[in-house]
């Protein structure tokens, strides 16, 4: 049954490929070649077997970042400058030992 269906598909395909004004003998020859070739020319794609029940989204290509401009406009400044140290002195026991 499958061979017959495959042959019919090939016949219809061969008929569509040939132009409308083609010679009937040429068309018949092409059709007969397609039938003789059989279903071996049409290969069915093997079905992929699922081994897991959970669906894992495939990991796609992650390109390296190439920004047009830097998002950080100013360089990081030292937050503990001389003034800040005087303002918030270190009053821990280990700090007191060093005084």
TrEMBL record:
The keyword DNA-binding does not apply. It comes from the Eukaryota. Transmembrane segments: none annotated. GO terms for biological process: translation. PROSITE patterns: PROKAR_LIPOPROTEIN (PS51257). Keywords: Signal. The keyword Signal applies. Residues 1-19 form the signal peptide. GO terms for molecular function: structural constituent of ribosome. InterPro entries: Nucleotide-bd_a/b_plait_sf, Ribosomal_uL23-like, Ribosomal_uL23_N. Residues 24-75 form the Large ribosomal subunit protein uL23 N-terminal domain. GO terms for cellular component: ribosome. This is Large ribosomal subunit protein uL23 N-terminal domain-containing protein. It comes from Papaver somniferum (Opium poppy). The lineage of its organism: Eukaryota, Viridiplantae, Streptophyta, Embryophyta, Tracheophyta.
């Amino acid at each position: 049954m499958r061979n017959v269906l495959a042959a019919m598909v090939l016949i219809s395909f061969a008929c569509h490929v040939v132009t409308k004004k083609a010679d009937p003998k040429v068309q018949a020859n092409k059709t007969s070649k397609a039938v003789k070739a059989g279903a071996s020319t049409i290969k069915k794609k093997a079905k992929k077997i699922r081994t897991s029940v959970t669906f894992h989204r495939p990991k796609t290509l992650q390109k390296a970042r190439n920004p047009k401009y830097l998002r950080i406009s100013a360089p990081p400044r030292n937050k503990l400058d001389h003034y800040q140290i005087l303002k918030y002195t270190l009053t821990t026991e280990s700090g007191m030992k060093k005084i």
